[in-house]
Design brief:
alpha+beta; CNF1/YfiH-like putative cysteine hydrolases
Length: 263
């Protein structure tokens, strides 16, 4: 799970886990041009940063990975389990209102899938047999709606993917030590996960339960039949030098980007 730096952009890649065939990265916040509180590689266009800077940051991130910015496909992320199948790039900075989803899949090597994060869980998918990729955004709402499993099922339906052939990466997200949730959320975790919820709702960090998003999404991936899973186990709230954290920075922060494409 090495970090790399290119064109001043620092990012995380998973060459030791993912089979050859993808270009992928989860970008840190380092290497862009945004000022505080978004310093510096902010890729989020709805957090108060200047749109022109955000666009330049995204372009810089793409070029650091050797991908053309015009190859991008992204969506409005709305904490859903909706999946978009895309066959061509959609490089517009402002998406139309109807383009709402939290998972994107493609089998077109000319498309670069892109999403933005600040505590929610990035999920990357690769099917080396059918040559398809996916990306998903899983906060607590998307996790409980099973956006991870929805992505697997969408790849099955669209490309004939066998879940056992898929490789899935669980990227940096807020760790259970920082992710206190209310009893109402804990009750919903019990409903979705049943007996598995005891391991996901950690009680050693305080009086209220703390949700383990990493383990929750790994559980959902295994339920969907995925066996090749790598969990970064990097807490965004613990490492503010690298990651934006909505909770640790009290909402005044940017969004780090993640991308995946067929090489």
């Amino acid at each position: 799970m090495p970090f790399h730096t290119h064109l001043g952009v620092r990012y995380l890649a998973f060459e030791d886990f993912l089979p050859p065939g993808t270009t992928h990265a989860i970008f840190t916040r380092q290497g862009g041009e945004s000022p505080a509180p978004w310093q510096s590689l902010n890729t989020g266009g709805t957090v108060g940063d200047d749109p022109a800077r955000v666009r330049r940051n995204r372009h810089l991130a793409f070029r650091a990975l050797g991908r053309e910015p015009d190859s991008m496909y992204d969506v409005w992320q709305v904490h859903s389990a909706d999946v978009v199948l895309c066959n061509a790039p959609h490089p517009h900075f402002n998406n139309p209102p109807e383009l709402k989803a939290d998972s994107i899949i493609t089998a077109n090597p000319k498309v670069t899938l892109f999403m933005r994060f600040a505590d929610c869980t990035p999920l990357l998918f690769y099917d080396p047999q059918k040559q398809a990729v996916g990306i998903a955004h899983a906060g607590w709402q998307g996790t409980l709606k099973d956006v991870a499993g929805a992505t697997v099922r969408a790849m099955q339906a669209a490309y004939g993917s066998n879940p056992a052939d898929l490789y899935a990466v669980i990227g940096p997200a807020i760790g259970p030590d920082h992710y206190e949730v209310g009893e109402e959320v804990a009750a919903r975790v019990h409903c979705v996960f049943g007996k598995d919820s005891q391991a996901l709702l950690r009680r050693e960090y305080g009086a209220k339960p703390h949700l383990d998003l990493w383990m929750a999404n790994e559980t959902l991936l295994r339920r969907a039949g995925v066996t090749h899973i790598h969990t970064s186990a990097l807490c965004t709230a613990c490492h503010p030098q690298d990651w934006y954290s909505h909770r640790a920075q009290h909402g005044k922060t940017g969004r780090f980007g993640a991308l995946i494409a067929l090489a």
